[in-house]
Amino acid sequence: MMHVAADWAKGRRLMVATVDHGLRDGSAAEAQSVARAARALNLPHVVLLWRRETETGNLMAQARDARLRLLSGWAHRNALPAVALGHTADDVAETLVMRLARGSGIDGLAAMAPWRDAFDMRWLRPLLGAGRDELRDWLRLHGHGWIDDPSNDNTDFDRVRVRQAIGALGLDIAGLARSAEHIASARDALSDFALMIARDAQFDRGSLSLPLSDLREAPPEIRRRILVAGCRWVTGADYPPRRATLIHALEAMMAQGRVTLDGVMLSPAAGRLRLTREAASAGRADAATNDQTWDRRWRITGLQAGQHVAMLGTDPLPKLGWRDSGLQRDEAAASPAIWENDRLIAAPLLRKVPGITVSPLRGAADFRSLVKAH
After folding, report:
1. Which residues neighbour 357 within 8 Å (Cβ) at sequence distance 6 or greater?
2. In terms of CATH architecture, what is 2-181?
3. Which among 16, 30, 194, 246 could bridge 45 via Cys, Cβ 3.0 to 4.6 Å?
4. How far apart are CA 151 and CA 169, in angstroms?
């Protein structure tokens, strides 16, 4: 990826980072070999270190998320608008087989997208059309060496077992990748239909409402897509709710009304479904000071020294006349408030405050992007 990008850049600003997960002997030396190769190309290089904080849970998933967060932070610090990753057609084929075995839906089976937005960064995958063998041939042709990660032979990992099974069965990598691309085309068509069903979405002070009749009449998969996008729009989450959890919440909502899903309240009323922040989840958000974001939902400016933003809560609501605000009670409680120690200074969503701006991080265009997200 680095050599291909260096050939392409030709005057464009390009930087290189290697994430050392520290999970095996030799990883530090391999990172330094990348550093030497980067210097030979006159490219700035940095090693980003990750140390696992817990021995429990899915190691591969933890390492992946840590890698993306480290790279996103590095890119932001260096004012880089995007990060290119070296996924290949082999990765697409292996992911398809792995997810077939897990019973994934169409989103899981679809091919990796050439780009996507996540972890506050745009990720590019320019090598999806090439297989690993093709890349090795290209490296040999241009006299470049490479390192084979010994983890690629460790059968403790699902991906390695799937890779070996594909080879043993003689399955065509390019054919599997094409199948994933066809599934991706079907996914995109569903996303377009979901956008059409959600065309009358309304946005109000960090909350979202949708026509309930359109949702009820839409096929279940379309409802699921719209609500996944809605929940992520409200919370700013990097990942959607789990399918089983979402389906259960949909069934409960259709049967009994108001439900909670992944930190979002789903409240049917007056012919619309309103998606608002759950107060209990907002209460766990770290306090924010000036020129910061709070709860991954709000941008704050204009605070005075000693002031911070935290959830309003229910206790102040009666004195603030929240019923006249048009917000639901829990929605108002989850809204941002200006505090000085334990003293409430202002609740900007209920009463405007001169000099202080509390604005939502996401708008209508972001919701449409999330409906189309993959």
Report:
1. 299, 300, 301, 302, 348
2. 3-Layer(aba) Sandwich (3.40)
3. 16
4. 22
